[in-house]
Amino acid sequence: MIESGESRPRRGQRPRNDKRFMPDCEIAPRVEEEEAPDILTKVKVLPPFQVAYEGNAYWPGSTPTVPESLARNWILNRWVERV
């Protein structure tokens, strides 16, 4: 029951002395899984396209070495072919 001097909680709110709420409980930090480094793949840029990786532009005929995931995307778009 509500003691004297306390107001009734509004609908949907719990009383202030509710033991189910623990504001000082510690929450463990989330541990994110480390991703394995991607395998590097050598590709050849097809004309008339230009691609860029890590701030470097690669023109048709050049052969950059890029991560496998990026190479798959470029191959899917037919900007490069695997060497």
How would you describe this protein?
The protein is an alpha+beta fold. It contains 1 helix and 5 strands, in the order E-E-E-E-H-E. It has one helix at 68-76, and strands spanning 40-45, 51-53, 56-58, 65-67, 80-82. The chain has a 3-stranded antiparallel β-sheet. It has a two-stranded antiparallel sheet with strand order 2-3. The protein is rod-shaped, with a radius of gyration of 29 Å.
Percent of sequence in beta strands: 15-25%
Helix content: 10-25%
* Low-confidence runs of at least 5 consecutive residues: none
End-to-end CA span? 78 Å
Q: Give the number of DSSP strands.
A: 5
Number of helices in the DSSP assignment: 1
Question: What order do the strands of the largest sheet run in, or round the barrel if closed?
Answer: 4-1-5
- How would the global form be characterised? rod-shaped
Radius of gyration: 29 Å
